[in-house]
Design goal:
The protein is α/β, with parallel strands linked by helices. It has one domain: Metallo-dependent phosphatases (Purple Acid Phosphatase, chain A, domain 2, 4-Layer Sandwich), CATH 3.60.21.10. Helix content is 24%, strand content 25%. The protein has 7 helices and 14 strands. The chain has a 6-stranded mixed β-sheet. A 6-stranded mixed β-sheet has the order 6-7-8-9-13-12. Helix 3 links the parallel strand 3 and strand 4.
């Protein structure tokens, strides 16, 4: 039997560490960012009319379209979503990506990426349509152009506005606020048409804005923005999170009468990597009343 010396032990340990990092690196770059996960959740909303009980809502967020990286999980997302036969699809912003040096509203070339992105999104089948709000990258590129591109493909963009849906004489409101960080958000204007006693779902890109929304008669806020940090370590969680995504970085929260869900998104920014934080497609089944 060969003798295990200190030098050979350290050499073997170093090799194992490098190999481990190689596996993690390969997974975070080649595998995980390209394989979105479907998460299914049942959400109980007390003010949801009985006629809307069982509504199937798909949420997507933070696509950050580019022709090389995020296009892969987006194509796979379309293939995952359509067999689900959703009633409604809601997309909570950041269709494109701008750099930190972009100047808001100066017609950044990144806005052009909304066109191929919208072509893929148009392939999603939804009984009641596809609705969207914009994110900070959209607002920093060209929010008007991006909204026009999406609208031309049948995607309704709500910027400080709302739209009512009717089912069997019962109403459900959808609202979308302009981006909190780089847009012109106006929560009062966004909600002004919604009766205080009717159920409302708000799309707001930044999840921590829920601290303000919780003061209003809104039942459900859907957000994104955080990416879940993209890289999450066991016991530690995300090392880096963007502004207005520290309080509620991922998953489900309850703030008084407001239910908040933060989707960790499809795409990536800065580096095309994800580790322990795969791209997300969320399917909600909405239920009327309180859980048993």
């Amino acid at each position: 039997m060969p003798v295990l010396t200190r030098r050979s032990f350290l050499k073997a340990g170093s090799f194992a560490a490098v190999a481990g990092l190689g596996v993690i690196g390969g997974d975070s770059f080649l595998w995980e960012p390209n394989h979105p996960k479907l998460l299914q959740r049942e959400l109980w909303l007390e003010r949801l009319p009985g006629a809307w009980d069982g509504l199937r809502v798909v949420q997507l967020s933070d696509i950050h379209y580019d022709p090389h990286f995020s296009v892969v999980p987006l194509r796979k997302a379309v293939d995952i979503i359509n067999p689900l036969n959703p009633d409604l699809v809601l997309i909570t912003g950041d269709f494109v990506t701008t750099s930190a040096f972009s100047h808001p509203r100066h017609g950044h070339p990144a806005a052009a990426e909304a066109e191929p992105c919208s072509v893929l999104l148009q392939q999603i089948k939804s009984r009641l349509g596809i609705f969207a709000s914009l994110g900070n990258h959209d607002a920093s590129a060209d929010p008007v152009r991006i909204s026009e591109i999406l609208s031309a493909r049948g995607i309704t963009v709500l910027r400080n506005g709302s739209q009512v849906l009717e089912e069997q004489g019962s109403r459900l409101w959808l609202a979308g606020i302009d981006d909190i960080l780089d847009g012109d958000p106006d929560l009062d204007k966004t909600l002004e048409k919604i009766p205080h006693d009717e159920c409302a779902i708000l799309m707001a890109h930044e999840p921590d804005f829920a601290l303000q929304v919780a003061k209003k008669p809104v039942d459900l806020q859907l957000s994104g923005h955080s990416h879940g940090g993209q890289v999450r370590f066991p016991l530690v969680g995300a090392v880096v999170l963007p502004h207005l995504a520290h309080r509620f970085p991922m998953g489900l929260y309850k703030l008084g009468n407001l239910t908040l869900y933060t989707n960790i998104g499809l795409g990536t920014i800065n580096l095309p990597i994800r580790w322990n934080c795969p791209p997300e497609i969320t399917l909600f089944t909405l239920r009327s009343g309180k859980p048993a």
